[in-house]
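Question (not urgent): is this output format expected?
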Amino acid sequence: MRHRPIQRLLAAGLVLAALALPAQAYIGPGAGFAAAGSVLILLGTFALAFGIILAWPFKAAIRAVTGKKRRPGKVERVVVIGLDGFDPRMARQLMEAGRLPNLKRLSERGTFSNLDTACPSISPVAWSTFATGTDASRHNIYDFLTRDPCSYAPMLSSSDIRAVPKTLNLGLAEIPLGTKFVYRSLQKSQPFWKLLGDTRVWSSILRVPITFPPQPFKNGVLLSGMCVPDLQGTQGSFSFYSTKPRATGAKIGGQQFQIVVRKGRVESNLIGPSGTDGHHQKCPFAVELDEGSKRARITLGTETVEVGVREYTPWLVAPFQGVQGIVRFYVQTWEGGDFELYATPVQIDPDQPAMPISHPFVYSIYLAKTLGRFGTLGLAEDTWALNERVIDEEAFLKQAWLYFDERRAQLFDALDKTKKGFVTVVFDTSDRISHMFWRTLDPTHPANAGKEVERWQDVIPKTYERMDALVGEVAAELGDDPRTRLMVISDHGFTNFRRGVNLNTWLLENGYLHLKDGHATSGDWFAHVDWSRTKAFTLGLTGLFVNRKGREAQGIVELKELDALCRELKGKLEALRDPVTNEPVIREVFLTRDVHAGPYADAAPELLIGYHEGFRHSWECATGSVTPEVFSDNTKSWSGDHCVDPRLVPGVFFCDTKPNTATPALIDIAPTVLDLFGLEIPAYMQGRALFSDGAERRAQPGRGGEVAPHRHEHGHAHGHERGAVDPSVTRRGQQP
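Got this back:
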């Protein structure tokens, strides 16, 4: 093998030493930013690097004696390509039309089927299920957002990032030293690649969602995906500079600046992390406009680049005090006296990361040094900039494919370095483009008003073609090696999103939610909700919470009332119909306690909303607002979705080998990979090994069909009868 573990360690150590990394800095939403660098850090870095190198032979010998054992595996390498949001109905249609020849060939060689998704069918839940082999009640992720039960304030479901005082304790007194920033993952259970690493199986894990902050594990590398923040500590705040005034009060998912062109020159600032004074730092840049050539020279820090209209710059370094980020600019408009410039969110520089975004820390540096700088933001494709029409469809697509090309290069580097072991890379492109262009598949979609349709009608099929070409490249790289297993999967499929439903407004109208006196509506994050009279509320995209006494800060619903209230809400919500079309809105409301039996079900939303196709939580409902009307047309470019009944949006499962079932599920992938490498499947995992014989398969009645994912026909959760609880979550919920 060309790249062995000792060579990896040598390379990583030398890179670390050569870079003279600053001390790790930490960033959090609304918090300041701290960074430091010194000669001591340089010396410490050299010591760490050479210490790793010198210690490796001894550690290897210890592992050889004490490491966990496994039986001989069925294969030597497993490759899983994740195509986020790749829809099986669309795939079948395009395969029949001859537009996906490589996936067709893979299906004929092995198999193609639906892949049961998670419940709820939303990416952070689904990919957490992929990683852990458990449902949401065991990995603790139910949505992008949840509420802080102590304050009802929104918080990320996947990670907790916050500022805490930093002091020096001298015994008689404590000296304040400012602020430090700590973070932790809120995902429970453990990813299956940790179990692989414990038995010396190497894993290369790239951009799998909900892997931030990166959790250490043996024998592998990881680059974090969804939920990596930008340098402002947000999930993506772009900047937009325009000579045109923007309408007062217009909502925008980033910063807006009105600029002036003086003598062919524009000067402005990028907004970055908070400084020591608590205010956001600014990084100046300048643009010189050549009207004759229609070329713009953009200078940021020490770099100057030249681009034309509707052209992205390469990644440029944005220097702030103590830390640097990276950004791309895009000249959106340059007509007459009008000039508009878009800047991506300022992202963590993988070459000098301000906080860990990979495991080991130097892995992102290695990728940046060998392949070039790349986007690190978890939700990299700027869907909100397109939603707000700051950029247009052309700019969005160019950006999406730039990120795709970066990810593709990382995939083939991982394949080259991992001749034996496990490789997985998740591509977001198919998901993001489906979200933003689904309207083009429906001529009557409300989001088509005022937007081009015909020009973009083939964008989603062409995206599937490019994913197919990627699969063809991977298959060619792997060859016909019988000791390699190739799988192509998606976390969920897609459907139309035409109508938004504000369940907070419905709860208000039906007496379950109350507002403070004098208010008929409420702004974001429950601004005017009267908690002393409110029984239920919702935020995020999938669930409805009961305001429970003893759990929520101002809870009023007693435990003895809970079951009756939930079933009452379920019955009324399932009877809800659209007043415009008279269509049923919700296919099924799942009572969490009926479908999930893990240790974290009690903290989850009590009801999971399984919408019919065409409906979803409205944008205002997702942010905890109460609007005048329950129903609204979805007019944003984000026109396709999957936060519906999970049975309506299964993912895809392609494999070069036939499985032992016609109804594979996402929850089966983790135990399947472990089994392929000869590991015993832990009792807490709820899936089954897809390539074992019948004697080794776990009994899973009620899979697929019209039964809620991960539920038996009589409503029992998988694993409940076996009493299979992940031992890692019994120790006060700590990550193993």
